[in-house]
Design a protein that fits this description.
Blueprint lengths: L1 H8 L2 H45 L4 H8 L2 H4 L2 E2 L2 E4 L2 E9 L11 E9 L3
Antiparallel strand pairs: 1-3, 2-3, 3-4
Helix pairs in contact: 2-3
Length: 118
């Protein structure tokens, strides 16, 4: 009798593991997506500072922003500059990439202000 019981239970762990795989995949995708959101926010801050630095030297804020971010984020980067008195403020908007098709996480927004170089 004990031999028959072992034989019937063979493969049970494999079947339970297969049922758990979708949950593991969802957790892994969520972790990667959270990392992408954090990385994009960091890149937006770098883009804003670089764009403000470029604009403060009478350069092109948009070009400074795009050169500061990773190449695969550059196409979704927009950095308008606003001049007020003796300072320039640049707001970087970087599209947050999604690993799940159809989900939109919006944009990361960061702002930097620098004095104009006279």
């Amino acid at each position: 009798m004990p031999y028959d019981r072992k034989r019937r239970d063979r493969g049970q762990v494999a079947i339970e593991y297969l049922g758990f795989i979708p949950i593991l995949i969802l957790v892994a995708m969520a972790a990667v997506q959270i990392g992408l959101i954090a990385y994009t926010a960091q890149q937006a801050g770098t883009a804003a500072r670089s764009g403000a630095r470029s604009a403060s030297l009478r350069g092109d804020a948009q070009q400074g922003c795009r050169e500061a971010v990773s190449g695969w984020l550059a196409d979704g980067t927009d950095c308008p500059a606003a001049y007020t008195g003796d300072a320039v403020t640049v707001t970087a908007d970087v599209d947050i990439p999604s690993i799940v098709p159809g989900w939109d996480f919006g944009q990361a927004h960061k702002t930097a202000t620098m004095p104009l170089d006279h």
